Amino acid sequence: MPVKLNEATFGDVCHLATPEEIINDARNGRMYILVDAEDRENEGDLVIPAQFATPDAINFMAKHGRGLICLAIEQAKADVLGLRNMSAENKSRYETAFTQSIEAREGVTTGISAGDRSHTIQVAIDPDTRTDDIVSPGHMFPVIARDGGVLVRTGHTEASVDISRMAGLNPSAVICEIMNDDGTMARLPDLVNFAQFHGLRICTIEDLVAHRMKRDHFVRHVASSEFTSQSGDKFKIHVYRNYLDGLEHVALSKGEPAKGGESLVRVHKVDFAGDVLYEASPRAGLIWDAMKQLAAHDGHSVLVLIREGSIDTLLERLGARKSQIDNKEQLIREYGVGAQILVDQGVDKMRLITNTMPRLIGLEAYNLELVGITPLISRRQS
Fold first, then answer.
1. Residue 248: which CATH number?
2. Burial of residue 372, with CB atoms counted within 10 A of its CB: 0-12 exposed, 13-18 middle, 19 or more buried
3. Rounded percentage of the chain residues whose pLDDT exceeds 70
4. For residue 3, what are the contacts with CB-CB under 8 A and spacing of at least 6?
5. Could you tell me if residue 3 is inside a domain?
6. Which residues contact 207 (CB under 8 A, 6 or more apart)?
7. Comparing 165 with 360, which gets the higher pLDDT?
8. Domain of residue 238, residue span
9. Which residue has the higher pLDDT, 174 or 332?
10. What's the pLDDT at 260?
C-alpha cells in the first residue's frame, strides 16, 4: 500500500491538528509530525505506523527528516524478540529506551537501503516473528515505549505507539527526528514550514496527553472508611489506586456534592521531607491546616493527598542523589490522578485552596471547572 504523503492542504496544517485528526491519519496510513514540549527536547519527529512503513516512507524520512530512523515498540514485543537494552544503565537525559540494533535474518542485502529497513520493520512487528528471525547488530534501532504510554512518559516513542494503538493498528511506529538543511534541529516554526511544504499534519504530545486523560481512567476507588482527625473533625477517608504505577492515594471528604454546586478542594502533593521530617519546613503543618479549613466549610469539601511517585524525590531532597525525574511528566501524572479522584468524589465546580496559582493541565477533559481561589490559612501566620 503506497504511503500517502501529499494529500493535506495548507488549511490542514496552518493550525495544530487535534489528536483525533492525527489518529485518523494514522489509521489511513498517512505520515504525521509529533512535537514535544518547548522545555523538553523541543523537537519534531516524522511518524508513520510501522505497518505502513514502506520503502517510500523510509526513503522520505531519510531524505527529508535526516534524523535517526527508529522503530518504536512495546515492551512485550521487545521481550518476544529477545531484545536487550543498548546500555545496562540508561544515563541518557530523557532515558530513551534504545535496544540493540536489529536486522531481518532473511530477505535483506546490506540492510541499510530503504527497502531493507522496511523489510526489517515488517519482520520485527509480525505477530509470528520470533527471536531467530532477527539478528543483531543491524541498521534498525528499536526503542521501547513505557507501559502506560504518554501518561507515564511524554516522549515521541510513547506518543507514536499510543496513536497506532488508538488507531486500531499494530502498536508500533517508525519515527525520525526532523533536522534543518544546515544540520540543526527543526523547531516549531521550521516544522510548520516543513509540514506545509510536504502536506503533513502536526500534533503536540501535550494534546495527546489530554486526549488520553479524557478517555483512559487509570485511577480506581478501592476502599472507604469513617475518619476523625486529632482535632475531632469528621471526614470520610477514601483510598484510590493508580493502576499505571500501583501507587495508592488518599482523599478526605466532608458533606455531599450537589449537582452544579461548588466544592471546596485542596489537592496536596505529599512531600515526605517537607511535610513530615522537618518541623521548620514551610510545608510543615499544611495538611492539618487544610483539614481544618475544609472541616469548617459549610458544604462539600475534598482534600486529595497525592503520593510522590519515586524515592528519587526524597533522595534529592536529602542531597543523596541528583534527581532523574522529568518534573513535567510527574506533574501531568499528578494532575491526572487528582482530577480522576475529584470526579469520583462528585466534584464539578471547584474552589481551590492554594496560595499559588498552578498551571492546570487537562481539567476540561474531566469537565472540572475552576470557579475561584481561596488562600490556605496557615496557623503559623495566624
1. 3.40.50.10990
2. exposed
3. 79
4. 29, 30, 31, 48, 52, 54, 56, 57, 60
5. no
6. 16, 18, 19
7. 165
8. 217-374
9. 174
10. 85
Q: Look up the pTM and report it.
A: 0.75
CATH number of the domain to which 22 belongs: 3.90.870.10
What b/e sequence results for 229-262 when a residue is b if at least 16 CB atoms lie within 10 Å of its CB, and e otherwise?
eeeeeebebbebbbebbebebbbbbbbebeeeeb
Q: Are 100 and 231 found together in one domain? A: no
Q: What's the mean pLDDT in 276-283?
A: 54
Nearest to 228 by CA among 236, 216, 239, 217: 236
Residues 334, 326 contacting (CB under 8 angstroms): no
User: Is residue 188 within 8 Å of residue 35, measured between CB atoms?
Assistant: yes
Phi-psi region of 195 (alpha: psi -120 to 50; beta: other; left: phi over 0): alpha
Backbone angles phi, psi at 205, to 5 degrees: -65, -35
Residues 226 and 177 in one domain: no
Contacts with 260 (C-beta within 8 Å, 6 or more apart), sequence order: 348, 349
C-alpha cell, 363: 481539567
Q: How many residues does the chain have?
A: 382
Question: String of b and e for 10-21 (b: at least 16 CB within 10 Å)?
Answer: eebbeebbebee
Least confident of 120-124, 148-152, 231-235: 148-152
Same-domain check for residues 258 and 334: yes
